[in-house]
Amino acid sequence: MLILKGKHINLRALEPTDLDFLYQLENNPSLWEISGTSAPYSKHVLQLYLDNAHRDIYDVKQLRLCICNDDKVLGLIDLFDFDPKNLRAGMGIVILEENDRDKGVGTEAILLLCDYAFSVLNLKQVYVNVLEENSVSLSLFKKLGFEQVGVKKNWILSNGIYKNEVLLQKINKI
């Protein structure tokens, strides 16, 4: 099992016991805008996903890890669209409960996963897509060395309104 240890949190592989957390997170309509979800997931479908979560990033082009603090799952962080030819991947992060946000959890999780992506997977770059209106996330990623490289105009349709999405990337200097 993959475990990345930080000072205050750990990133670990998904476990069968994460089904209820995954069910709660994936069926939270307030998060659907950033995940591209448009309908609820059944526990059965999520169990099938968990049954295949052990597959290698080189096979499924994705790595999803739980962000944990004292054995409590706080959120998820992903590498997606893994491209071993061009040595890049997208990153996404979500902390489920608002009271767990703005406490350094996201910062530590992003730093741990970037370190893994650059030192273990030998990626050249990691990129993120953030809604233009999400000033907290934009500030966080910029603070952690991600540079804004573009704006995707009218990219996300949410409640009948098109929203811009900002593309940021962090280049491995080594």
UniProtKB/TrEMBL annotation:
Domain of life: Bacteria
Keyword Transmembrane helix: no
Record keywords, A-Z: Acyltransferase, Transferase
InterPro entries registered for this protein in UniProt: Acyl_CoA_acyltransferase (IPR016181), GNAT_dom (IPR000182)
Top-level EC class as recorded in UniProt: transferase
Name the UniProt record assigns to this protein: Diamine N-acetyltransferase
EC code(s) of this entry: 2.3.1.57
Record-linked SUPFAM superfamilies: Acyl-CoA N-acyltransferases (Nat)
Keyword check for Transferase: yes
Molecular function GO terms recorded: diamine N-acetyltransferase activity
PANTHER family: GNAT-FAMILY ACETYLTRANSFERASE (PTHR43415:SF3), SPERMIDINE N(1)-ACETYLTRANSFERASE (PTHR43415)
PROSITE patterns assigned: GNAT
Occurrences of domain N-acetyltransferase (ranges): 9-173
